[in-house]
Amino acid sequence: MPLPRLRTAGTALLVTGAALLTRRALRRRIDASPLWPLPALEQPVSGQPRSRALKLRVARHEHVADGVVQLRLEGGHLAALPGWEPGAHLDLVLPSGLVRQYSLCGDPEDTSSYTVATRLIGPDEGGRGGSLEVHEALREGMEVEVRGPRNRFPLVDDATSYVFIAGGIGITPILAMVRAVDAAGADWRLLYCGRSRASMPFLEELEKPGGRVTFVAEDVDGRPDVRAFLGEGQGAAAGTAVYVCGPEGLMDAVASALPEGCTPHLERFAPAASAGGESPFEVELRRSGRTVAVGADTTVLAAVRAEVPNVAYSCEQGFCGTCQHHVLEGEIDHRDELLTDGERGDSMLICVSRARGTRLVLDL
Ligand code: FES
User: Fold this and answer.
1) For ligand 1, what atom is nearest to the CA of residue 315?
2) Are 257 and 291 in the same domain?
3) Which has the closest alpha carbon to 178: 196, 205, 200?
4) Could you give the percent of the chain with pLDDT greater than 70?
5) For atom 4 of ligand 1, which residue has the closest CA?
6) How far is the CA of 227 from the centre of ligand 1 (A)?
7) Is the Cβ atom of 299 under 6 angstroms away from ligand 1?
């Protein structure tokens, strides 16, 4: 059975002799570990290669609208940064250790840097400290760790036309998409809403393709009329790809205004509301040989972390996919809007999803 990590560590200890640990003692320690043996997955559940963290330098930290900071992160020593496509995001590991996801909004052809933008969300708006840290603690010249890029909001390339709807900082993934479809000569329209023009980044660029973009600054124009926008021109007809990124109210407005049979591509700022009324259940961690209880007021992730502290997670909101695990037995109550139907068959995001019955078995 391969023991890559432990063998490496053991070899280092034996060679230096610093820990006075013999090979036999090391073997005893490994065998005594309650989590051993725990074979590593050859391939992550998502099928995507595990991306290694990169150390990038904050080359630019600038205010591009009221309450919006844009970061340009450069690889410097790296020949070329991993590529990405519109809709992709980065995991940013902030100096405090918080990990947050930000959509890439720069040029995918630029392999020397990544660009992201974040709106400041204070605690009174439900902010959890990530955007505050980006705004107030990150400075030019600092080094940050990033993981990714990963794309959970991909742009389809076979639509007859594209309708984009962005609310606030939801413009970041949409901007990269708009550039791509415009460069490809596709038919597209965008509804871009914000609290005020001053709070809406990228206005100058988006005003150039005159006629394709409808701007709604709510302090002057009031709430956007999503139904009227969707009905304009050819409307959201069959073959039209509809992409929406923004707050929950905008998502709801789009969902209620879309014609029958039209399924939008959504990226939310927050997870969809829970159905409520949680029931406790238990989760067997098959490879670890443990069973944990998941209470009515806790998550699978929290229960698993109590037994397996290094289990991977990031957003804790069903956004990023980091906590996706294979489910070997049991019926899953999916609470995310990230996984595809195919993935939902035998995997779940343990930060938000639960069991429909009394028991799940995870390949963990
Ligand atoms: Fe991000 Fe679960 S931690 S989806």
Assistant:
1) 1
2) no
3) 205
4) 81
5) 318
6) 32
7) no
DSSP 263: P
Torsion of CA 330, 331, 336, 340, to 10 degrees: 90
Does residue 36 form part of some domain?
no
Taking the centre of ligand 1 as the mean of its atom positions, its distance from the CA of residue 182, in whole angstroms, is 32
28 in any annotated domain: no
- Whether the pTM exceeds 0.85: the reply is no
The answer to whether residue 210 sits within a structural domain is yes
| 322 ligand 1 Cβ < 6 A | yes
CATH number assigned to the domain comprising residue 225: 3.40.50.80
Average pLDDT over residues 106-122: 94
CA of 283 to the centre of ligand 1 (A): 18
Answer yes or no: do 263 and 167 share one domain: yes
* Domain region containing 352: 281-362
Please state, rounded to an integer, the average pLDDT across all residues of the chain: 81
Residues 208-233 pLDDT 10s? 877 899 999 999 999 999 999 988 75
